[in-house]
């Protein structure tokens, strides 16, 4: 096996082209084996085998620097740069993350998990090279799906302006996570159809030297093209046609399903865990379909993650014109929603919390200054969301709750969520975001008939001395604390704040009469969040306040339960703290 | 005078083409007259006279909907839609804002002040139109400068995908605020040179129907092209060549100077107020030039506002390759800086606070997760910065201080600022942002020799009972409070926090021994800011805390001194509060 002899990308250089072909087969087999047992990004990586081998064969990493966009397609790169054991030996599978990471290898230049950034990052590497008078090659590898993000376009523009060596490799597998949308994709299609010869050419128009490779799985073709552009003195685009999921029948057939996922049965192409547990994503999809049927102005928007709002292929078909996938383009999504709302439509933009970060200015300027009644649904904004450093979802409260004019609602259960969502869609007054709960779906079994036009926090249990204000899906911790306190003859007040962009001042003032301690609990970082608003309000008074949440930090591959304990987000520990505080 | 008869854009329709020409001259004259007395965006508006008249002549606003990007070029539109008196009568000059605003007129669809948003906003209007089965024209007018922003590209992509009527008018005056940079501008240049005939055509590549107009100041040509595309069933780009500052000699000659500014002498083309007061922008430019000379790795970056870092035309020439204007592309700027830092360069990105909002995700993901030692300088992040609703600069603390791994420094005077800046450039440990003061330059006359590697808040005056923690350029209010308190026999402690992304816990603990009240002062909104972190820390203790700052809100054309008073940010009022609190 050649793969076992590759301890470093330098070891590749001694192989013949024929041997590279054998190596490709070995790499693909190893990849598929690990992926089927461990899960991960199958489609993107299976499609990058030959290209990655050719990259490391021709270029001299780490002197030559390769930046992988979003790094969902960097597994083969890891296998060839000293990390093969993490793919060959089950016990070592978790030695590597799913992303490039400088802490793992000198061949990795950035920790990357959000899309559309590679060209700008690489442009910076190239600028420093030029300032220092060095001469290495700088390569950005970016998928067609990632190129729809505005940052990628800003990068392309500036690479041309910079004018010196930079090689942009476009891995065109004709897919984002789901289908691609947008004018740019029509151009890619035209370029593929014409084998790169169409006169309509976005990259040439921008000033790039452009090359097309029809078969990205032909190692020799890839080696040749990379040799041709190596040490180029000007910016080059290599447009490579690849097949997402290449070499694995089921992944080639069902590209969306095999973009990423858990362990699967290689023989049948079925995921082992077929989780059918009720979740807020699917429930939202169901609700929206019904709402769309009743009201033709309702339109669901996603930025390339239709699963967030429960819009699987079938639901997308049913929704028709009332569903829009804008591609990886969160900024457009928010401005688009604002425009729709302004002209009498009812837009609902659903987005994973980690990606709402990409659109702060649009929420502020395009949407909230204009008070347009668009609805933003923030999913997985929780310690129980994605746990990779680059995909953390618990920065949403400081991000959103400090933007003027934005109402940010935090439902605590299913009925409350749908009552709020319905209110948000029906009202015409302002922009509303909802922090969709992300723990198991809690149903009260009774419809929520609250009138959310009048924003008040809810006193769920009236007590004295101690009040617990428990936000959204951490409401259950508040309930536990209240219960535990009874064992100490303390009968506290339990509050569901309902909205977290501001405070229910009347209620807070009322609490002062018969309470001496307020506890806040939120599923997010403490800094800049809801609890700190409460602490600030009570600051000049005798009321004591203790805020619970997570300490501001990029946590990587954490265990959510451990993280909660570390931050004392546990009913028993909180009761312990309370008893100390009121002593 | 025809202009006086135009009370609404409908009144235009009765004029002949010849009369439209006369009207153009009248409009330009009126515009120049007001601009010379009142100030504003001269160049962009002088270049839009004929185009705007043609737009309102051909289309039926407000049924047909025109969205002006950034709206720095919407003055003529205002004159033609019922607001001419605000241009003709000095007493009414301030009846209109410098931006489109739905509160002013039904012909304005959005309050817009940040660039690159019009296409996406208009795309939303068009989507709602389609959902409702309506048939009006939707028009986005965008300058060449604004098209470098990623959001504009995301918009173009999606307009093509949407496929229905939308008319994108590109006002190509060959300038951003300063020169344009990037591959896209080379394409515009090629298209101008070839009169729209070059086969390299970004817009055709994206799938637009493309039209070129060589002389955007020919009313007839503009009327004809708009008539041709009116009611088009598919997306159209009209690329119009105009002259920035058209019709005013000095503005045509010196386009950057006349992009925007205060009142000027029409005869001489000189601004009336030639402010030469020392300011942090120019000082930064001087410092950076010197630093560049000493260290070839230092590179200053701007996103189309070189004035922010004191990089006027002359300084840009001196800096050479060590200055990069990335165009309006804040996201790229941050990722680019991260890449430069990673490869051993020393990037300093200077940006106005209102625009740092456009790059939250890049600061978090591209920069801070990677701990790359880039320097971000945030200018005009102050109540004394720009006071238009869309350009407010005091949301930076909640935005930046809650991003993990980012050090946010807040100097209180000139020497401290440059000591921090020098430290930030020289260190290799992490990403550092500096909240550059924005009131008059305060010099202590003594070099600051603090070692900022060890981050500690500074106790400037040691006292007891009451401690004032005064951030950055509000430090002077803290000094005043301390002084005033003496009259009441209170000798308080004055603290300069130095860093505002976290707390000096040791110091806060120490204060507990001999203080009962802590006051925080910051030049920014209270919500999510520095003071609330202090309040949260002391929440469970007996220490009282009162936070001073601005209430979260979009304030429009405010008087900074009134706003400070409204928020009790005044030494006398604060002392009043303190005396009440400690009674």
Question: Would you summarize the structure shown here?
Answer:
Chain A has 583 residues and is of the alpha/beta class.
Q: What would you note in describing this structure?
A:
- Two copies of one chain form a homodimer.
- Chain A starts with 8 loop residues before the first helix and ends with a helix.
- Chain A has 583 residues and is an alpha/beta fold.
- In chain A, helix 20 crosses helix 24.
- The first copy, chain A, has three domains: 3-256, 3-Layer(aba) Sandwich (Rossmann fold); 280-435, 3-Layer(aba) Sandwich (Rossmann fold); 458-581, Rossmann fold (3-Layer(aba) Sandwich), CATH 3.40.50.
- Helices cover 39% and strands 16% of the residues of chain A.
- Chain A has a six-stranded parallel β-sheet, with helices on both faces. A five-stranded parallel β-sheet of chain A has the order 1-2-3-5-4, sandwiched between helices.
- In chain A, helix 20 links the parallel strand 15 and strand 16.
- Chain A has 24 helices and 18 strands.
- The interface between A and B is large, with 120 and 121 residues.
């Amino acid at each position: 096996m050649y793969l076992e002899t590759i301890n470093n990308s330098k070891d590749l250089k001694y192989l013949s082209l024929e041997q590279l072909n054998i190596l490709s087969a070995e790499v693909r087999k190893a990849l598929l084996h690990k992926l089927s047992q461990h899960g991960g990004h199958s489609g993107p990586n299976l499609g990058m085998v030959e290209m990655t081998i050719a990259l490391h064969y021709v270029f001299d990493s780490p002197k030559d620097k390769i930046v992988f966009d979003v790094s969902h397609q960097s597994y083969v790169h890891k296998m060839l740069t000293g990390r093969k054991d993490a793919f060959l030996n089950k016990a070592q599978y978790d030695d590597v993350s799913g992303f490039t990471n400088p802490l793992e290898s000198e061949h990795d230049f950035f920790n990357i998990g959000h899309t559309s950034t590679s060209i700008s990052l690489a442009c910076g590497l190239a600028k420093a090279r030029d300032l220092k008078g060095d001469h290495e090659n700088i390569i950005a590898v970016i998928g067609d799906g990632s190129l729809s993000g505005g940052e990628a376009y800003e990068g392309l523009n500036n690479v041309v302006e910079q004018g010196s060596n930079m090689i942009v490799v476009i891995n065109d597998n004709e897919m984002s996570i789901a289908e691609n949308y947008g004018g740019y994709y029509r151009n890619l299609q035209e370029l593929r159809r014409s084998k790169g010869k169409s006169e309509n050419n976005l990259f040439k128009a921008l000033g790039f030297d452009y090359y097309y490779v029809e078969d990205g799985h032909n190692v020799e073709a890839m080696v040749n093209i990379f040799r041709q552009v190596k040490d180029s003195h000007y910016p080059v685009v290599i447009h490579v046609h690849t097949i997402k999921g290449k070499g694995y029948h089921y992944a080639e057939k069902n590209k969306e399903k095999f973009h990423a996922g858990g362990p699967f049965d290689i023989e049948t192409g079925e995921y082992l865990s077929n989780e059918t547990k009720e979740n807020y994503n699917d429930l939202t999809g169901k609700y929206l379909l019904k709402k769309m049927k009743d009201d033709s102005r309702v339109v669901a928007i996603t930025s390339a993650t239709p699963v967030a709002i429960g819009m699987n292929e079938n639901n997308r078909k049913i929704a028709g014109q009332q569903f829009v996938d804008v591609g990886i383009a969160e900024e457009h999504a928010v401005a688009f929603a604002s425009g729709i709302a302004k002209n009498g439509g009812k837009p609902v933009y659903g987005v994973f919390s980690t990606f709402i970060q990409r659109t702060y200015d649009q929420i502020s300027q395009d949407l909230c200054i204009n008070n347009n009644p668009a609805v933003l649904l923030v999913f997985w904004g929780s310690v129980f969301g994605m746990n990779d450093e680059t995909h953390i979802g618990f920065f949403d409260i400081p991000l959103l709750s400090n933007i003027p004019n934005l109402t940010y609602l935090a439902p605590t259960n299913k009925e409350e969520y749908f009552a709020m969502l319905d209110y948000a869609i029906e009202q015409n007054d302002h922009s509303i975001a909802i922090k969709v709960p992300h723990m198991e779906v809690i149903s009260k079994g009774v419809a929520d008939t609250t009138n959310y036009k009048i924003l008040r926090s809810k006193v769920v249990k009236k007590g004295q001395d101690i009040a617990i204000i428990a936000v959204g899906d951490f409401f259950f911790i508040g309930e536990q604390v209240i219960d535990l306190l009874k064992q100490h003859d303390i009968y506290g007040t339990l509050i569901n704040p309902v909205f977290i962009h501001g405070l229910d001042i009347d209620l807070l003032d009322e609490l002062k009469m018969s309470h001496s301690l307020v506890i806040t609990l939120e599923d997010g970082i403490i800094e800049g969040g809801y609890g700190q608003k409460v602490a600030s309000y009570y600051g000049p008074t005798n009321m004591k306040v203790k805020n619970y949440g997570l300490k501001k930090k990029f946590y990587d591959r954490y265990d959510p339960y451990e993280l909660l304990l570390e931050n004392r987000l546990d009913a028993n520990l909180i009761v312990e703290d309370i008893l100390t505080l009121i002593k």
